[in-house]
Amino acid sequence: MNSDMLTLALKQQRLQLKSAALRAQWIGHAGGLKPLCNGVDRVGQGIRWLQGHPQALITTGVATGVALLVARPRTLLRWARRSFFAWQAWRKGRNWLARRQPG
Fold first, then answer.
1. CA–CA separation, 58 and 70 (whole Å)
2. Pairwise CA distance, residues 38 & 4, whole Å
3. H/E segment holding residue 14
4. Angle at which helices 73-100 and 54-71 pack, to 10 degrees?
5. Any idea what DSSP says for residue 20?
6. Which of 7, 14, 16, 102 sits a CA distance of 20 to 30 A from 23?
7. What's the pLDDT tens digit per position in 57-74?
8. Which of 94, 89, 69, 93 is nearest to 80 (CA)?
C-alpha cells in the first residue's frame, strides 16, 4: 500500500513538472500575442469608462459638430440632410415591415 502511494506521488510530481515546463513553453510562444491582448484590454477599459461617463461621448459629439460647423458648414449641412433622410427612410421602412408581419 505504501509503495502504491509513493508511485502515485512520484507520478503526480512528474506531471506537475511537465505541466510547468509546458506552461513556460506556451508563454514563450504566446509572447507575440501580448501587444494584441494589451490592445484589447485597453479597448475594454475605454468602453467601461464610457459606460460610467456617457456625458463625455455626448460632449465630444457636440464639440465635433460645432468644429465641423465652423470649419466646413456646407459639408456638415450636407451630411445632416443625408442623415435626416436616412432616418426618415428607416422609420418608414420599419413601420412598413411592422404592418406586413402577421400577428
1. 18
2. 47
3. helix 2-29
4. 130
5. H
6. 7
7. 889 888 988 888 899 999
8. 69
Instruction: Determine the pLDDT at residue 32.
Output: 83
Report pTM: 0.42
State the Cα torsion 71-73-76-78 to the nearest 10°. Answer: -150
* DSSP secondary structure of 46-94: HHHHHHH-HHHHHHHHHHHHHHHHHH-HHHHHHHHHHHHHHHHHHHHHH
Q: What does the pLDDT read at residue 48? A: 93
Mean pLDDT of 43-61: 90
* C-alpha to C-alpha distances, 55 to 5, 42, 44, 50, 70, nearest whole angstrom: 64, 20, 18, 8, 22
